Here is the input.
Amino acid sequence: MAIITMKVPVMTNSAIKSVWKTSTNVLLLVLACTSSSHATTTSEPLPPVSLISCQQSIDKTREWLVSKQAFIPFVSNTRAGRIEPRLTIENGNYSQLYRTYPSGRPKKIVFYLSGDADRIWQGVLGSPQTLTTFASLMMASCSRVGLVEYRHWWEGYLPVGFFPDNTAKAFTWVDASDSRVRDWGFFYSP
Here is the structure.
């Protein structure tokens, strides 16, 4: 994916919104034209400069998840009550899970997805490149975030982590008995 840079003389709040809207539309157009069968990688370089705040990048990701009906209130047939989507920003506690991890990025953002399971699994969690792209935008805007997790309300998730080459990469699933399960970049989920 090519990165287009442009000079912006003076950034006002309306100019930032315009640039973000344009870049979001371009990003979604590129993603719409790229099927998962053409995706050869699940890594994305972090943008060199973020024109939006951490909160704005999180809000844009949330808006995209809502548009895919993966971040909406949901009534399950298997669990009593209404399931609400949640978003947390928390301490990653990486040292308890991984032998190696990014220093200087102790936080993680967790999206607890809720909505129709097929839309979540086949539409959102089935698109690791798209999720990695959104994670890279959040990591560029949120300099202390080293991990973004997209978690299904019932079970399963996809973590995307920050790597020293200034990229965001979707972690690779491995079996619980695999020796790499405690290495940054790998995960196990039953």
User: Anything to note?
Assistant: Residues 13-33 form the longest helix (21 residues).
